[in-house]
Amino acid sequence: MWVRVAPGTQYFKNSRTQELKNSRTQELKNSRTQELKNSRTQELKNSRTQELKNSKYRGCRIWGMIEMDRDPAFGEVKEKLKRLNIEAILFDLDDTLIYTSEIFILFMEKYSRVVGEKIGVGAMEMMLALQAINDEEYKTMGVNPKRWEAVVEKLVVKFSHGKKEILENLDILKTIYAVEPRMRTGVRTMLEILKESGIKLGLVTHANVEWTEFKLNRLGLWDYFDQVIIVDENGHKKADDWERGMERMEVEPEKCLVVGDSLGGDVRPGDELGARTIYLPSPWSVYRHGEVPGKTVVISEIFELLAALDRLE
């Protein structure tokens, strides 16, 4: 029996068939691409793990992509920690393991430039005012991102003729929390070496919870730490917070090393508790106020940390 087919029906059928074939082909292609990416990621991970294991026996001195003769060999780290009787290391996060200040500066400068141009104020004058007010608000609001709302309100008081422009560009400052930060040079290799040595690793960070999770997720840092303590964003980091980290890891202060960029929030609290301390001076002046404890070891880059173990008492 013959069936009359309406004009265009066969074309539609062929078109739909081709569409489904193309869709399936693209789906398979995407699946294969993801499979290859996952395979490559695992391959690199296995390769890096093997590299670290091999370096232990070859005595190679590896720092990420850099080989430095002055740094300790992989196999020496465990012995150094044992000699120092250090069972755990607690790190600060921002500007210690990752670059955070550069993101703040980037968008503070952009805000100052954009707003300053619109209201007839020099970018430098606007930036200096923004920094001063931000430092002042930090004292009462901590690191809460809502601090910026208070900051721009005070900018309005100083530059009242530019109220509209000052307020409507607030989103530039809020962009700070949507940018993936860079890890400091040598951080991942350092953490891998420390983890392989059997030392307990913890993080005590003072920041917004969502922002902290964003940074750790994007940089793949969660798995390095046995404990992560996020200090209330509305307050300030104190000795109690570091002590909480030590208790969570079940280690006495004298068997712990504290590493951070803030004298008031990291180094002095750790020293007061009886822990050994390593200080990496912050780019922010507000975190450099006060005296450096006598036994604290000062470094200029985080990749110096393992070599700095020799200078601890």
What does this structure look like?
54% of the residues lie in helices and 11% in strands. The longest helix has 50 residues, at 9-58. The protein has two domains: 56-99 and 182-311, HAD superfamily/HAD-like (Rossmann fold, 3-Layer(aba) Sandwich); 101-178. α3 crosses α4, α4 (123-141) packs across α5 (147-158) and α10 (239-248) crosses α11 (263-273). It is built from twelve helices and ten strands. It has helices at residues 9-58, 74-84, 101-119, 123-141, 147-158, 163-168, 170-174, 187-196, 209-219, 239-248, 263-273, 305-308; strands spanning 62-63, 66-67, 88-91, 98-99, 182-183, 200-206, 227-231, 256-260, 276-279, 297-298. It is α/β, with parallel strands linked by helices. α11 links the parallel β8 (256-260) and β9. The chain has a six-stranded parallel β-sheet, sandwiched between helices. Mean pLDDT is 83; it is low at 1-17, 24-29 and 31-72.
List the main descriptive attributes of the protein structure presented here:
two-stranded antiparallel sheet, alpha/beta, 54% helix, 313 residues, 10 strands
Give a quick summary of the entry.
The chain is an alpha/beta fold and 313 residues long. The protein contains twelve helices and ten strands.
